[in-house]
């Protein structure tokens, strides 16, 4: 198994897959991270980037970097192999996977887990436990690749769900990318309020509501640019929901407001 | 000490104050909660609601209920005493406190802590540890009342901060009440997206971003109605911040977007 990108996701995957693999090799744009991964025993060796042989290539990088690796991998890795990515958006990646030579069997993937912290230092073999791992197969994905991915997902304690790439991206916009933007807007608006006591007063409610604003910037920037259309569409729905709530608050119809709050409280509590 | 309202806040305060009080009496609109508080030894006895003597009366209820208790307390409790409230908004409560007879020394308060769960069952003697406890003194607040409140706050492990009621309400709108509304809007918009897979895909990011939507409805309803003006003003700032972010995403100026994300990430990480 070759893992490209030894940050939180790739590093955690290396740790979780360790007991099941004959050999794990890895690569990172930061050569010090490769050294750390070797020191900690996460990988057996660095990937040789010219002519190396891998059975499974896992791309665990931000979306734009994954697109770049998909472009370069045919000239880097010989023979037949599976390629699975862990990118946060799927439509552009799956489109790029369609261009791969036939000897490579591609499969889109996105584990729905994460942490406020990023990087190899935060890697955790239990990161994937009980997480939902979305798989977005292509028409050309070989059955053996799908089976292998599902076995891998079971081995690391996650659950797999097959989803069309476009549907994944629409849903990820609603439950992840737009919450990132509202989280940023809350921090930005609090900065604009221009009263430093606000930060001292911020308790767990503000911390939780804005946790996503602390996400890795490169990862999020790639998400915002590669899933722009779905995000803007989903954002319109949130703005409309917010507008309706404001109308209820402003309109002083306490009964209607209470009914709405109860429905949304119920829905959130059932999560 | 008499505590009105034996939910999460009042119950936790009773537990935390236990070692420091000669006697704690309590009241709740739900008589079964009073029985539970007696059974668990949180209070020594129920408050007698006609002519009982208290040294300190603590109002730990939703805002509208606190306003009601302030109205009724002079006819219920004889002699001189301090009254301190734990309400989520301060302007209306402090205004009502101004109307109390002179034998009662009032002080507005708001501990900036909470939990997703509410009720006596969630009461925790450590709830107030390291929390910021805002005090909003009135001109007529006696120095002894302020000293007593500060001693109490130190005893339960919290830190006190003196703030004008209006400033408290503006800041609370920014860091708590508006995040509640955005949290509701995220849940509402996901319901409108009308694809149940969204809920299965929702991971820690969505959970955190929407945690406030699960807050106690009566408490939040009172906040929304008693702090309407500050909330609407703060919401305008959030909508404007969101609009600016959308422009950056839509405008494809990756450098400007990255710079903005880095500033907000930094600010959130320094929280």
Helix content of chain A: 40-55%
Strand content of chain A: 5-15%
| Annotation field: number of helices of chain A | 11
Which structural class should the secondary elements of chain A be placed in? Answer: alpha/beta
Rg of chain A (C-alpha, Å) = 21 Å
Average pLDDT taken over every residue of chain A: 95
Number of strands of chain A: 8
Largest sheet of chain A: 8 strands, mixed
Record the strand order, biggest sheet of chain A: 3-2-1-4-5-6-7-8
- Taken in chain order, the helices and strands of chain A follow as EHEHEEHEHEEHEHHHHHH
Specify which chain pair forms the largest interface: A-B, 86 and 86 residues
- Report how far apart the termini of chain A are: 35 Å
Low-confidence regions of chain A: none
Shape of chain A: elongated
**What quaternary form is this?**
homodimer
Please outline what is shown here.
With about 270 residues, chain A is α/β, with parallel strands linked by helices. Helix content of chain A is about 55%, strand content about 15%. The first copy, chain A, is built from eleven helices and eight strands.
């Amino acid at each position: 198994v070759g893992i490209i990108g030894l940050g939180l996701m790739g590093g955690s995957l290396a740790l979780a897959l360790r007991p099941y693999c004959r050999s794990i090799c890895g690569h990172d744009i930061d050569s010090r991270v490769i050294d750390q991964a070797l020191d900690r025993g996460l990988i057996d060796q660095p990937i040789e980037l010219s002519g190396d042989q891998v059975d499974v290539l896992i791309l665990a990088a931000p979306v734009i970097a994954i697109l770049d690796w998909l472009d370069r991998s045919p000239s880097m890795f010989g023979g037949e192999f599976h390629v699975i990515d862990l990118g946060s958006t799927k439509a552009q990646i799956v489109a790029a996977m369609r261009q791969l030579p036939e000897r490579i069997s591609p499969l889109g993937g996105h584990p729905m887990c994460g942490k406020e912290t990023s990087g190899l230092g935060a890697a955790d073999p239990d990161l994937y436990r009980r997480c939902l791992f979305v798989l977005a197969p292509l028409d050309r994905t070989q059955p053996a690749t799908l089976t292998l991915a599902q076995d891998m997902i079971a081995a690391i304690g996650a659950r797999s769900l097959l989803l069309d790439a476009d549907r994944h991206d629409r849903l990820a916009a609603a439950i992840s990318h737009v919450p990132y933007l509202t989280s940023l807007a809350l921090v930005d608006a609090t900065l604009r309020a221009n009263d430093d006591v606000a930060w001292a007063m911020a308790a767990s409610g503000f911390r939780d509501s804005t946790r996503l604003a602390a996400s890795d910037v490169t990862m999020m920037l790639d998400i915002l640019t590669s899933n722009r259309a779905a995000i803007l569409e989903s954002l319109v729905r949130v703005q409309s929901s917010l507008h309706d709530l404001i109308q209820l608050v402003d309109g002083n119809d306490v009964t209607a407001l209470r009914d709405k709050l109860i429905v949304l409280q119920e829905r959130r509590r059932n999560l």
